[in-house]
Amino acid sequence: MQILLISGISGSGKSVALNVLEDAGYYCVDNLPPSLLPELITTLSNEPQVAVAIDSRSASQLTGVLDTKQVLAKAGHEVRMLFLTASTDSLVARFSETRRSHPLSHRLIRGDACVEKLSLMECIEEEREILAEIQALAHVIDTTDLSANQLRSWVKNMIDMPHAPLTLMFESFAFKRGVPLDADYVFDVRMLPNPHYDLALRPLTGRDAPVVDYLDNQAMAQDMYADILAFLTKWIPSFKDDNRSYLTIAIGCTGGQHRSVYMVEKLSRHFQQSEQVLVRHRRLH
């Protein structure tokens, strides 16, 4: 059985991900207490694909999730973990727009003279702490500046990929939008010559041949590529030894359109020869 465990910060898009999985043929269960997961899998033994959402509402049982994952894997099931997150500012804006309360907002703080509910910011930060252990071992998607359609596409790309010991995620981004929260390694390529200042190249992207030719002819770009390639080649085996399932390499330039896209495409082509690779461009819709 293919089992996908979904978790994440409230408001980061778990419902969107579950809808994608349901459309893809997964039997989906939302907000399942982790202690019931083995029983659920036994009950659904005839289902080929099952997706289960586990979140902070089951905080007292989350410590057993990783052990349960290992038990299911040893039983022959293919188990993956997906974690969705977003910046605090983005989450606050989403809760304000929907006018919904945070799941942890009903926890009480007992002071000397009164009993108060947690503020929204306090709820978000507490939830990050509660779910930190799960996030560390899952495939993480930062939904801060993603549209619903982008998130649907990225989730679909993930489940369409064959299961492998380690998947490399190469992701381009714009520094002016902030560093993605899902990045394990971040490389800055803003010092490279910028195609933006060539009027003929400005409307193009790092995937287009004229931009590729321009950067291929820049010695600095080739030196940067060689340095990043050497670093990753040296350290990727250590992540495999550490039983990591996903490694996200984020590469940023100013606008996320030319240099970072070029570098992500070039590196991903190299590693596709020997590793399982996913590619994302946060600013290319």
Mean pLDDT: 90
Contiguous uncertain segments of 5+ residues: none
- What is the alpha-carbon Rg in Å? 21 Å
Number of helices: 9
Distance between the termini: 33 Å
Largest sheet: 5 strands, parallel
Structural class: alpha/beta
Report the count of strand segments: 11
Strand content: 15-25%
**Looking across the biggest beta sheet, what order are the strands in?**
2-3-1-4-7
Order of helices and strands: EHEHEHEHEEHEHEEHHEHE
Characterize the overall form.
globular
Q: Which range best describes the helical content: under 10%, 10-25%, 25-40%, 40-55%, 55-70% or over 70%?
A: 25-40%
Protein name: RNase adapter RapZ
Domain RapZ-like N-terminal: 1-158
Binding site for GTP: 55-58
Binding site for ATP: 8-15
What is the topological layout?
Layout lengths: L1 E7 L5 H10 L3 E3 L7 H7 L5 E5 L11 H10 L3 E8 L2 H11 L9 E3 L4 E3 L2 H18 L1 E4 L5 H13 L6 E8 L10 E4 L20 H8 L2 H23 L4 E8 L5 H13 L4 E6 L4
Keywords: ATP-binding, GTP-binding, Nucleotide-binding
Protein name: RNase adapter RapZ
InterPro entries: P-loop_NTPase, RapZ-like, RapZ-like_N, RapZ_C
Write up this protein.
The chain is of the alpha/beta class and 285 residues long. 40% of the residues lie in helices and 21% in strands. The protein has 9 helices and 11 strands. It has helices spanning 14-23, 37-43, 65-74, 88-98, 120-137, 148-160, 209-216, 219-241, 259-271; strands at 2-8, 27-29, 49-53, 78-85, 108-110, 115-117, 139-142, 167-174, 185-188, 246-253, 276-281. The strands form 3 sheets. A 5-stranded parallel beta sheet has the order 2-3-1-4-7, sandwiched between helices. It has a 4-stranded parallel beta sheet with strand order 9-10-8-11, with helices on both faces. Strands 5-6 form a two-stranded antiparallel ribbon. Helix 2 (37-43) links the parallel strand 2 and strand 3. Helix 1 (14-23) packs across helix 6. It starts with a strand and ends with a strand. The model has no long low-confidence stretch (mean pLDDT 90).
